[in-house]
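Final report, results section. Input specification for complex C-07:
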Amino acid sequence: QKEVEQNSGPLSVPEGAIASLNCTYSDRVSQSFFWYRQYSGKSPELIMSIYSNGDKEDGRFTAQLNKASQYVSLLIRDSQPSDSATYLCAVNRPRGNNRLAFGKGNQVVVIP
Amino acid sequence: ETGVTQTPRHLVMGMTNKKSLKCEQHLGHNAMYWYKQSAKKPLELMFVYSLEERVENNSVPSRFSPECPNSSHLFLHLHTLQPEDSALYLCASSQELGAGGLIDTQYFGPGTRLTVL
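Structure output:
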């Protein structure tokens, strides 16, 4: 099993709809979770960090963490063309070095 | 300057050249990182410096040589690279929180797009 797995894309959503991205992780004792957005040719920028079970909302973005099921998701409400990007899930590796492991990313395309 | 800066933004080099990538962070963080991002692959952690000491080297070939002269600056020295080393090289910084399991956000620089001919 991969450390951090993101289901393959790309995900096409109409403008104004909700985009839903999922990420599963292998180490059940991971404690720190991040979603980054990366535009083509640019570097990753932080969208959201989450550390506790449940939902965390920031504007149009909601991160959901379920440690029992070992998944973290990102919802983008009222999707805009500017949300078209690749979204990276990152999870800490608590055993050993406690560094971040990244998923391959989900490409989101918002269709006007 | 704010955040994390990297120079150069683009670099084309031959296999026999020697070049260096530079990273500077203006966030007061105590840890800095080099990542490699190749197409269709997850971000790969190369090196970690914490309080100016190298604390991690993820089996990176010796043709990549990092240097961290102080907590704000990080270099990646390149020599005799291979075409498969062509990638986006990203620098990041964060504040180490110490023991406890939680880690703080890493902030990325704009990256250096490296092409090895």
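The two ends of chain A are 37 Å apart (CA to CA). DSSP finds no helices and eleven strands in chain A. This concludes the modelling results for the funded period.
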